[in-house]
Structure to design on (208 residues):
């Protein structure tokens, strides 16, 4: 899974899972999830993690830029975004590069983590134990998407309530992390699903 998602993000092929790019990115991802655990250890280790994370984000990004400049690149999400000059055109170059670096890295991190594999394993186990649930979910998907006619889009979510709740139940039944990510702070007043969120409010996500 790691090699495939890295190629998708950066267009970089790896012969094995000992490639330095993969190792650095996987380690940085593990650090990110460890950071979501609520304790006071974080202030003692975050400085060590920052350098590791920056290298994991910067190195493959610069590699893809070099490949693109020489014309010897393979199609990837990052190479396509680098060629799209209209993307984030209103941002300074430094900010634009930061956005692209983070986007490519998170694409790899989200798909390559042990957490993603754990969710898939839990889902398969649940479907084996409850085949009637799989039949019902498949029927709902077919009714919305047709029989193998297209892939789902974000706009389809509202029309797939059973499938959506099935995914949430798997995440509740076999949670893969203590929270849905590190704490965030709202930088402006906001309203989300009927909840008033004031500027400065600390938010901790819930996967389900």
């Amino acid at each position: 899974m790691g090699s495939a998602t890295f190629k998708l993000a950066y267009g970089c092929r790896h012969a094995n899972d000992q490639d330095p790019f993969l190792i650095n990115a996987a380690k940085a991802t593990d650090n990110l999830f460890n950071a979501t655990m609520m304790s006071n250890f974080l202030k003692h280790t975050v400085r060590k993690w920052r350098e590791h994370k920056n290298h994991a984000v910067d190195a493959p990004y610069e590699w893809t830029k070099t490949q693109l400049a020489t014309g010897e690149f393979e199609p990837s999400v990052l190479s396509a975004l680098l060629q799209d000059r209209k993307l984030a055109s209103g941002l300074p170059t430094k900010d634009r590069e930061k956005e692209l670096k983070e986007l490519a890295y998170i694409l790899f991190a989200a798909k390559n983590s042990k957490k993603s594999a754990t969710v898939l394993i839990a889902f398969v186990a649940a479907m084996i134990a409850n085949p009637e649930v799989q039949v019902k979910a498949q029927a709902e998907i077919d009714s919305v998407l047709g029989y193998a006619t297209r892939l789902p889009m974000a706009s389809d979510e509202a029309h797939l309530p059973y499938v959506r709740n099935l995914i949430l139940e798997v995440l509740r039944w076999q949670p893969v992390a203590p929270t849905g990510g590190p704490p965030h702070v709202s930088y402006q007043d906001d309203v989300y699903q009927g909840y008033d969120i004031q500027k400065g409010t600390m938010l901790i996500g819930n996967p389900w």
Summary: The chain has a mean pLDDT of 79. The chain has eight helices and four strands. Strands lie at 184-185, 190-192, 195-197, 202-203. Residues 65 and 79 are 8 Å apart (CA to CA).
